[in-house]
């Protein structure tokens, strides 16, 4: 598993009240998905069950795309579109990931198919189903609500065949879905710091999205773009109120464009957030393939018409060739190398090197995800900084003790293991909390590195305590005690506070100042402060 999957795995195994508690402070956008996965993982908590819903959702989405293509054009267009969606490397990548994005794609495709049915039949129950599916999909990830903008553009483009009754029905369904989403929006608005790591997208983000939707092989991207141009230059005959181009083009462009625009001022964009827009690309490419088939049919001699299945099989063969051409990409996506990190590899190192009772520091605290996801590798070890476990604290990675208490826990240790993320080993890394700074300070100042085991997603280090300096007049053979200067200063200050609180200051005769009040303002002795550490704290 990689880090996002590990969040799904460890949160979904909590009780429902604990998942609700977590959603109040973090990851509310995935709260409904965590509840769903809570029941899935009760069958068997493992990587297969973690990813099975995404695999099934991707298969369902491919079928829905085929149904949309068949409804808007003809059967072989739907066949090509569904197959092309299935063999796109991005589909396979997110189909084997234990996150909600493949399920969002399935919900978006189902809502789009329901829109077509509601527009054609105009029945109230179809509009109710449409609104319900959009609302449920948005609860899996709230950015799926951008699908409504794409559908609105589709209706605008098809305005000649969309009367006022249909507009009112769509408006009511869309408003109902958005109204139902308001509680989630209000909850996630206060958790925007979780995506503060995102940056404003640029042209490179647009190029990445293009490769995700149409490639990523340059040859396949070129062919897909040419097919889309053919479909837009000579649109297929419309079979209902909405044409294929009027549906697929807004679906492909509108959600990403809106999120890219908003993300210029607020960091919100990532390609996975608009993955559901991918369904429009195979529909347009299949329509372009249909136009190419028509051209080829016209070039053949009138006396030798091709077999009815020849064009369909030729398209299938072309899609199979594209799949084989991009097979190396599929292989990478199916391996640990295709993920941002590999927590299992780090856990294997920990299982090999750590023993029962070994003290471990996680730097930063988020690296605790390795132990939470693969606890067998850390069986019997001591988590030195942990104060409250993640489930009990309603957080993703637990709450940690303060820097002084952490120093006390480290004071009597002769060695300590540190599991750190690769970025922490860089000299430019700065800790975000006093406890993180204390970890770094104590390890650097009081311990010496004796062993290091590197993996792509983390590094495990063993530190042993430095031999303390022996004073000139220290007796031979007598061990020199370990002294933490920060703890000494802290304990001395606390002792002064207790002494001053006990003696107090009576004040001038008759002033009525109570004994033990802590002294007159300004008369209290200034407390000694610990020296500053080069990284910003003591």
Task: Please explain how this structure is put together.
The protein is α/β, with parallel strands linked by helices. The chain has two domains: 3-338, no CATH class; 343-465, no CATH class. Helices cover 56% and strands 7% of the residues. The protein has helices at 3-12, 16-23, 31-41, 47-72, 75-87, 89-95, 101-121, 124-140, 147-157, 164-189, 203-214, 218-233, 244-262, 280-299, 308-325, 327-333, 343-353, 369-373, 390-393, 403-411, 434-446, 485-503, and strands at residues 359-363, 382-383, 386-388, 399-400, 415-420, 447-455, 458-465. The strands form two sheets. The chain has a five-stranded mixed beta sheet. β6 and β7 (458-465) form a beta hairpin. α4 packs antiparallel against α5, α7 packs antiparallel against α8 and α8 (124-140) packs parallel to α10 (164-189). The protein is elongated and about 105 Å long. The relative contact order is 0.09. Residues 496-538 are annotated as: Disordered. It comes from Streptomyces mesophilus. Keywords: Cell membrane, Glycosyltransferase, Membrane, Transferase, Transmembrane, Transmembrane helix. It is found in: Cell membrane. This is Glycosyltransferase RgtA/B/C/D-like domain-containing protein.
Features:
elongated, 5-stranded mixed beta sheet, 56% helix, disordered C terminus, two-stranded antiparallel ribbon, 2 domains
């Amino acid at each position: 598993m990689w880090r996002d999957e590990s969040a799904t795995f460890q949160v979904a195994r909590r009780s429902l009240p604990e998942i609700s508690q977590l959603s109040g402070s973090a990851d509310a956008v995935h709260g409904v998905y965590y509840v769903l996965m809570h029941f899935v993982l009760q069958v068997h908590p493992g990587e297969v069950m973690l990813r099975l819903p995404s695999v099934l959702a991707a298969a369902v989405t491919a079928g829905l795309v085929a149904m949309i293509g068949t409804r808007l054009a003809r059967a072989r267009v739907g066949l090509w579109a569904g197959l092309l969606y299935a063999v796109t490397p991005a589909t396979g990548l997110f189909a084997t990931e234990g996150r909600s994005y493949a399920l969002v794609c399935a919900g978006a495709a189902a809502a789009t198919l329901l829109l077509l049915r509601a527009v054609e039949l105009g029945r109230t129950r179809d509009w109710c189903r449409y609104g319900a599916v959009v609302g449920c999909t948005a609860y899996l990830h709230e950015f799926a609500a951008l699908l409504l903008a794409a559908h609105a553009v589709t209706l605008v483009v098809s305005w000649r065949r969309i009367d006022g009754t249909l507009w009112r029905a769509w408006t009511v369904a869309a408003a109902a879905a958005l109204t139902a989403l308001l509680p989630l929006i209000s909850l996630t608005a206060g958790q925007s710091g979780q995506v503060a790591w995102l940056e404003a997208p640029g042209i490179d983000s647009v190029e990445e999205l293009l490769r995700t939707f149409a490639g990523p092989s340059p040859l396949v991207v070129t062919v897909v773009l040419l097919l889309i141009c053919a479909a837009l230059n000579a649109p297929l005959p419309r079979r209902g109120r909405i044409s294929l181009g009027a549906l697929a083009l807004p679906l492909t462009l509108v959600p990403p464009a809106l999120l890219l625009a908003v993300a210029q001022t607020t960091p919100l964009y990532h390609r996975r957030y608009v993955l559901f827009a991918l369904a429009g690309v195979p529909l347009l490419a299949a329509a372009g393939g249909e136009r190419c088939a028509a051209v080829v049919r016209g070039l053949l001699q009138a006396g030798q018409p091709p077999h009815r299945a020849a064009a369909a099989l030729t398209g299938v063969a072309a899609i199979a060739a594209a799949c084989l051409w991009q097979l190396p990409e599929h292989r990478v996506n199916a391996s640990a190398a295709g993920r941002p990190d590999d927590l299992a590899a780090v856990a294997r190192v920990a299982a090999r090197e750590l023993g029962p009772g070994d003290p471990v520091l996680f730097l930063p605290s988020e690296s605790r995800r390795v132990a939470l996801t693969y606890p067998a590798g850390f069986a019997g070890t001591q988590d030195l900084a942990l104060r409250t476990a993640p489930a009990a604290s309603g957080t993703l990675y637990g709450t940690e003790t303060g820097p002084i208490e952490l120093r006390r826990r480290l004071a009597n240790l002769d060695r300590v293991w540190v599991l750190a993320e690769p970025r922490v080993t860089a000299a430019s890394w700065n800790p975000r909390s006093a406890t993180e700074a204390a970890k770094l300070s104590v390890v650097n100042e009081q311990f010496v590195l004796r062993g290091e085991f590197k993996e792509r997603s983390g590094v495990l280090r063993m530190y042993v305590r430095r031999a303390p300096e022996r004073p000139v007049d220290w007796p031979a053979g007598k061990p020199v005690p370990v002294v933490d200067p920060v703890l000494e200063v802290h304990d001395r200050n606390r002792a002064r506070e207790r002494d001053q609180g006990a003696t107090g200051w009576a004040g001038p005769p008759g002033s009525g100042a109570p004994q033990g009040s802590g002294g007159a303002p300004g008369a209290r002795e200034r407390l000694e402060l610990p020296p500053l550490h080069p990284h910003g704290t003591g």
